[in-house]
């Protein structure tokens, strides 16, 4: 493994970082122009950056122990370099003169657990470039460029939630986001609660193809209902005339948006937990993006003392579950749920609360 001292031949010119995200409510709503409530993770990605001083870009990841080098006008091979290249090329397209750079990218975010390590990489890269090169870029525009980097350079057709959360959320509040207007505001967690996040140990499989299939189904449902996006449907009964499975997909999105709006207006901890459970059941039964392991893990979390509600978080088909729990109970409840889940032969691990020795 190469150290930053060796990589830069001294100290880097700038350092920047960005968190991942855990979404508490509002899943598969962002590409329907809807609403969501993510929080930032304590785990972060750190980008150290300097001008390279030669004609090449050089990226190094100690996590992967991998180096990527490419010429000023070239491209890196697909991999973590694509996300960074996307950020660089899109900032250049904004008219900024970006010289060849050296980046040292380190993270304690788990990759593949659905906590948006890719958004953290994009946002940290853009923050480092903004600080090194001194151009103006507000945090919402930064999130939009990060999203475009992922879509156009890493070829993953994501919505705006992860990049907005990484750019604007913090760890102790939820960030209410309206994906159509990008209006956003911090909303306090229900009083006297804290979060648990447990990785199911199942890598997300089929996620990309099923994600694109769900997006297409939502677009078709909107066309049939004569609306621009499912966000424009506010009466949940109006989806019941659609043919299956469009009916179920639209039912999830319309009701999920209502759950977010109710939660963002301020509800009791118990009600917030109920909304999370309802979200999970809707993702399982109507949106069909859960898998048995995520259902088992949520059940184990709900059975733990102090837990008010639990659901899968992120796109589904693997990754992590999030639970809301009464303050002071998270450590014990997470340990109990993990033990119950792993008894089934699974390989889960607690991501939040972060253990004393640091995460990962
Ligand atoms: C992934 C995408 C987000 C969002 C979620 C589902 O995390 O990156 O844009 O669509 O899935 O809510």
What does this structure look like?
With 360 residues, this protein is an alpha+beta fold. It has 2 domains: 4-188, Ribosomal Protein S5, domain 2 (2-Layer Sandwich), CATH 3.30.230.10; 193-352, GHMP kinase, C-terminal domain (Alpha-Beta Plaits, 2-Layer Sandwich). Helices cover 38% and strands 22% of the residues. It has helices spanning 4-8, 80-93, 117-133, 139-152, 161-168, 207-225, 246-264, 269-285, 292-303, 330-342; strands at residues 14-23, 35-36, 38-51, 56-61, 66-71, 101-107, 173-178, 184-188, 193-199, 307-312, 320-326, 349-352. Strands 1-3-6-4-5 form a 5-stranded mixed beta sheet. A hairpin with a 4-residue loop joins strand 4 and strand 5. The protein starts with a helix and ends in an 8-residue tail after the last strand. The structure holds alpha-D-galactopyranose. Alpha-D-galactopyranose binds at residues 27-28, 30-31, 158-159, 161-162, 314-315.
Sheet with the most strands, sense and barrel status: 5 strands, mixed
Order of helices and strands: HEEEEEHEHHHEEEHHHHEEHE
Please state the average pLDDT score. Answer: 96
CATH class of the largest domain: Alpha Beta
The level of helicity is: 25-40%
Structural class: alpha+beta
Order of strands, widest sheet: 1-3-6-4-5
- Count of folded domains: 2
Q: What's the helix count? A: 10
Uncertain residue segments: none
Number of strands: 12
CATH architecture of the largest domain: 2-Layer Sandwich
